[in-house]
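quick one, 258 residues, struct below
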Amino acid sequence: MLLITGSPSGRRRYMDLMLCQIDHRYLRLLQEYARVLVQRNSLLQRLRGRPDPASLLEFWDEKLVAVGLEIMMTRKAMLRVLCSFAREAYSDLSGTGEELGIAYKPSLEPAGELPDIQIARAFEERLQQLQTKEIFQGMTLCGPHRDDLEILINGVEAQSFGSRGQQRSTALSLRLAELRYITNRTGEQPILLVDEGMAELDAHRSRLLLRTMESYPQVLATASNVDAFPLEFRQQSTLLHVETGSVEITQPERLRAG
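---
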């Protein structure tokens, strides 16, 4: 749920972890960007009151734009595919005519509307516009480290206006889309992890989620109350009971009685 209701940093982490699993080059880009960001921020903190700060920042601005642009382009390319997968998953999980939309929301206003080839120039211009403010605050205020995902249901922001059931279905849809994306890129099927997936879902959405889970070869699902899963579903599963730090394999009837 925090993927939907939490801060932008959680959604950036979602994108970055997914890409790092399948693209070692992207991991190196993140590492290089972090290095450039540290160096640029250090310089910004020393520039207050100095003459001609633009010339002193020029080298690190160029580095920030070059590496940052590659990160943004990689994220955008991934999201074009992921959005299609998530939309299909949401349709399966909601059973309604609602449409899920996902868009990259860069900190380069209005870079979301620009063609890719113009984003580098927009990045440079934004850094120039923010230069005085950045020197005053001693930090870089623009770039992929400030970007976000825009998640919409029927064109309305899910974070602020979606119901709890809609938000839960959206979070699950993004995880299912992530698995499908990784499978398509690597040829390997990851294990589907569903933590308290039935929580805050109505009976209809719960049934649709169970049907989706049954279509995956390996699923690890948790619930504080085992009755969240129908007996038939439990009978087809290996059941692990966790209590006070110990784990044991048990039977559906015993869990239900407990």
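Residues 5 and 160 are 8 Å apart (CA to CA).
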